[in-house]
Specification:
Helices cover 41% and strands 25% of the residues. The protein folds into two domains: 3-186, Ribosomal Protein S5, domain 2, CATH 3.30.230; 188-325, GHMP kinase, C-terminal domain (Alpha-Beta Plaits, 2-Layer Sandwich), CATH 3.30.70. By secondary structure, the chain is of the alpha+beta class.
């Protein structure tokens, strides 16, 4: 038997950061995001020996460790975290051991929610193998708890829910980790126009994500006026952008995207840097209207709003930079798993 799973990565369109505690606990958060056809993948193969054979392709981890009654410590942190939680909550596996292979279409630190999506993907694979009936909310909530509470990794809540549900979603983050996901029925022509108007550019892997999130958390805890007020505006931008998206108003969508980026830069001085700024300068000179970094900042992917008739020119201009333009399409599918 072979078990496989797949979970989509996401673009954070608006409101990112307002899903991070303690801001979401104090003020509530709103996020608008959408999943794309880049994904995380996981394969599990049962083994007759009590070992865990790990192949985390994109992380460069190939390891085999013995399995006993205690927690796994293979060095593949996310895999260990999911396995240990499964063992704790649902008991022994159907076989003495297993081989697990994972990889991602985008590198860690790219701003597309790669780590959280991978946790959802691995958890979905284990659930399929063991016949655990996890709904989308349960899948996302458990993935969030594994990453933020069990493994104590910094970050927010939106990525797990985006990966579990898929599609365009307006999410509300309330105190006590309460999350409400509102799937949006976006007309097909609007999705097509948004795809035609968005250009995705990879600047390079971000090494600042966790530090930026921690600075944001510190600013909220200390009540730093400018940073908190900027986050209030970022939160409101998700509400405003949802309305423009449903109406197909790309001009207003682009304006909100750009204004939110200006507010985002006020959260920490490492959110932007010369590499990011050069990419923006080149894109704007070639005809882009606005843009923002997807994720915490410091690197990763830039989303650029470009009039479709100028997209070729902007793409050609970006080719001269060290990064790369990455084609994509939106997808409405969340995490899936199947057996062979």
């Amino acid at each position: 038997m072979i078990i496989r799973s797949k979970a989509p990565l996401r673009l954070g369109l608006a409101g990112g950061g307002s899903d991070v505690s303690p801001y979401s606990d104090l003020y509530g958060g709103n996020v608008l995001n959408a999943t794309i056809n880049l994904a995380a993948y996981c394969t599990i193969e049962p083994l007759p020996r009590p070992v865990m054979r790990v192949c985390a392709e994109d992380a460069g981890i190939w390891e085999e460790i013995p399995l006993g009654t205690g927690p796994a410590t293979s060095g593949a942190l996310l895999i260990d975290g999911v396995y240990n939680r499964i063992l704790r909550d649902f008991g022994p596996l159907p076989s003495p051991g297993f081989a697990i292979t994972t990889y991602n279409d985008a590198p860690a630190g790219s701003g597309l929610g790669t780590s959280s999506t991978m946790v959802v993907c691995i958890l979905k694979c284990f659930a399929e193998w063991m016949g655990i009936p996890l709904g989308n909310y349960e899948l996302a909530r458990m993935a969030y708890e594994i990453e933020r509470k069990d493994l104590l990794l910094s970050g927010g809540k939106q990525d797990q829910y985006a990966a579990a549900f898929g599609g365009f979603n307006f999410m509300e983050f309330l105190p006590s980790d309460l999350v409400i996901v509102n799937p949006l029925r976006v007309k097909e022509w609007i999705v097509e126009e948004l795809e035609a108007s968005l250009l995705l550019y990879f600047t390079g892997r971000s090494r600042e994500g966790a530090a930026i999130i921690e600075k944001q958390q510190e600013a909220t805890r200390k009540g730093r006026g400018e940073a908190v007020e900027a986050m209030h505006r970022i939160k409101q931008s998700a509400v405003d952008m949802k309305l423009t998206l449903l109406q197909g108003d790309m001009h207003s969508f682009a304006h909100i995207l750009g204004a939110a980026w200006e507010d985002k830069k006020k959260m920490a001085d490492t959110i932007t840097n010369p590499v990011i700024q050069e990419a923006f300068d080149v894109a704007l000179k070639a005809g882009a209207i606005s843009g923002k970094v997807s994720g915490a900042g410091g690197g990763g992917f830039l989303m650029l709003m470009v009039p479709p008739e100028r997209k070729f020119a902007v793409r050609e201009a970006m080719q001269a930079l060290p990064g790369k333009v990455v084609p994509f399409q939106f997808t409405d599918k969340g995490a899936v798993a199947w057996k062979l």
